[in-house]
Design a protein that fits this description.
alpha/beta, 8-stranded mixed sheet, two-stranded antiparallel sheet, 16% strand
Length: 311
């Protein structure tokens, strides 16, 4: 049976290097999972990121390709969620546009999910630092270590690297968590991991190869303060859910209602060809349209699977 896999690539002003990454992903998927799906989410880029993605993916024959694009820069977390919730694979994996973790590391995350060992698998640079080929500048690397220590202290998560942009999800059980998430910027990974663990899902941190790319958009000082603030907000919101689910507010209440609702299995997409897909979102319209159907964006918080139809 063919592997039902979706790859999501969030991108912001990545026109210069996205083409090379997409070619590498498509080439790899043609061998590893020919019936897979590749979704690029252009997070309000001011360059021609969306056009580059469409041009590179237009000749894809076996891998199903989609490009989601909107005008406002909503944040990497929002872009990742849009892509994951638009995906139709049983397993969805997101990876950074620069492929800091090579795409051929995919089986390290996908195989444990297929074997039923975990529901969410994520790459780690901290578990085996010998796998790091090109290190970050010393200050940035130490800042990352301090941030991950702060995450462990604030949330109780037993993981050493929550920020590596290489994570895979068993969508049947992870979809409610993704739908309920609210953090749009750099700490979105922490929220997903924290709430998934709170919900009783099985998480596995896995060492992966990684190389620093000089084009990183994180500002060490400013973004570090924002990320710590977001982590503390995540803890306050989710802790209300942990201590009294009935009195939970915000994302915690949505998570509770989603987990209590009956879940249907994701649709298989092996048999049906998917035309190239492009979405343009422009305020204040809550609706976006594709070339083959209609999707609903609820306050642009998430996208429901675009194979479904809404009145």
């Amino acid at each position: 049976m063919a592997l039902s896999l979706s790859i999501v690539v969030p991108a912001y002003n990545e026109g210069a290097r996205l083409g090379k990454s997409l070619r590498a992903i498509v080439t790899y998927l043609n061998e590893y999972a020919p019936a897979s799906e590749l979704i690029v989410v252009d997070d309000g880029s001011t360059d021609d990121t969306a056009g580059t993605a469409r041009a590179e993916l237009s000749d894809s024959r076996t891998v199903h390709t989609s490009v989601i694009s909107y005008h406002s820069n909503l944040g990497k977390g929002r872009a990742v969620r849009l892509g994951l919730l638009a995906s139709r694979g049983d397993i969805a994996l997101f990876t950074d546009a620069d492929l800091s973790t090579p795409i051929n590391e995919t089986p390290k995350l996908v195989d444990p999910i297929l074997r039923g060992e975990c529901d969410l698998a994520f790459g780690s640079r901290a578990l085996d630092r010998t796998l790091i080929g090109v290190h970050q500048p010393w200050r940035r690397e130490q800042g990352g270590r301090v941030f991950n220590l702060a995450v462990r202290l604030a949330t109780g998560l037993p993981f050493w690297d929550t920020q590596c942009g290489f994570k895979a999800f068993r969508m049947e059980v992870c979809r409610p968590i993704i739908e309920a998430a609210t953090v749009d910027r750099f700490a979105f990974d922490v929220e997903l991991l924290y709430v998934a663990r709170l919900a009783g899902l099985r998480l596995q941190e896995i060492p992966v190869r990684w190389d620093h790319d000089a084009g990183s958009k994180i500002e060490l000082v400013n973004d570090s303060f924002r990320m710590v603030s977001q982590v503390l907000s995540i803890r306050r919101s989710a802790s209300r859910f942990a201590h009294d689910p009935r009195g939970a507010t915000g994302p915690a209440r949505r998570i509770l209602s989603q987990l209590q609702a009956p879940q249907s299995s994701p649709q298989s997409f092996h048999a049906d060809p998917v035309p190239h897909f492009s979405v343009t979102w422009q305020m204040p319209s809550p609706q976006v349209y594709s070339t083959f159907g209609r999707m609903r964006v609820d306050r642009v918080r998430y996208v429901l699977p675009f194979t479904e139809q809404f009145k």
